[in-house]
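Quarterly update from the structural biology core.
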Amino acid sequence: MDRTQNQWAEYSELAALFFLQAMATATWLVPLSRVLDAHGVAQIRPYAFATTAVAAFISPLIFGAMADRHASPVTVLRGLAVASATGLAVVAWSLQHAWPAGLVLLLIQLYAICAAPTGSIANAIVFSRLRDSQRQFGPIRATATFGWMVGCWLISLLNADASALAAYAGAVTWLVLAAFTFLLPAVAPPPSTGRLTLRERLGWDALSLLKNHDHRVVFFTAALFSIPLAAFYPYTPPHLKQLGFERTSAWMSLGQVSEIFAMFALGTLFLRWRLKWIFGCGLGIGLLRYLFCALDSPAWLLAGVSLHGLSFTLFFITAQIYINERVDPAWRARAQALMWLMIGGVGNLVGYLGSGFWFNYCAAAPPTRWTLFWTGLALAIAAVTAYFLSAYHGWGPGRRGTQSANPVAPGATAGRSDDGPAAGRS
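Predicted structure, tokenized:
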């Protein structure tokens, strides 16, 4: 009984960690588009969303390397949460007092640099305490989805969908997360292996993971898939608004409903499906989601929003589990940070800026040609799906214990090419 109680207590801690980190992120990101519109700085919208991408090139690998080698990931997360709270409060103040758009954008960028590493470091903390990530990670990660939904509901409840109050709410949530980290046991970094090079201190040695073929395909697909997906949060709320919906942050949370169901089903899917088809299904649902949005009607747009969680879980959460299972624990934080760099850096930077230009083209002559906008993005996802299905081979044998010890290609595997239902259980 004591063991069961201790296990549930541990799971509760990890669930609360995910809940708070996701809630803090959602309270600012989801209403951001309408907040900028309401404060007369709509012209910086593509660049404001792109700040997360720029930040992904700067901070996740650096702080991932710190969490792997120098300090407890819990301590690193605490410092970043405090810095994020401070930065977001200053952003709110600047919007309320009508500071110049360029200065507001700079402040949003500074906040993004602080917040960007928190997701990958939270993943590293959770994975370090799980004994069977394929079975356990999905249900625990579902609490992050619920936290995201609560963040959306809170903003709409406060009627802050177009208010700087959304940023203040996010700042308070970041402070709550910082306080909560004092309840988490420290996760000690591995013993020092000697003097580190500048490349190692910056975390860029994680790029050697890309020398493994399937690792490279998964990382590259994540980046490519993120490009069209980057349009979802900037442009779905305005589309909803144009179709007559109010409290758009709450409506956007429909995507997280399907995400929760997918999280709990993920363990069963790992047992019954080839990994390739879990990834492929996530890509296919992403394509279907944008085709629904292209129909430009209230019911179909809500259907498209609802599919967001399925697509996200089946591809991106599966990718996080893939990394944890196939990469040595000493590389855990850097590997998760590299994934965030590919998604939040490469993918989102190209996606936010590219979708901004694409939207301007589709909206050049009112009304906005939403069907053209979403169809173009759907075609991009179709191309990414074709690349993945043709390039991905499948897992090699076993789990971490059978990986190659070759330091040039950490996490490399050899042998069986079929990633069947027992791939993660061998």
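The CA atoms of residues 153 and 250 lie 5 Å apart.
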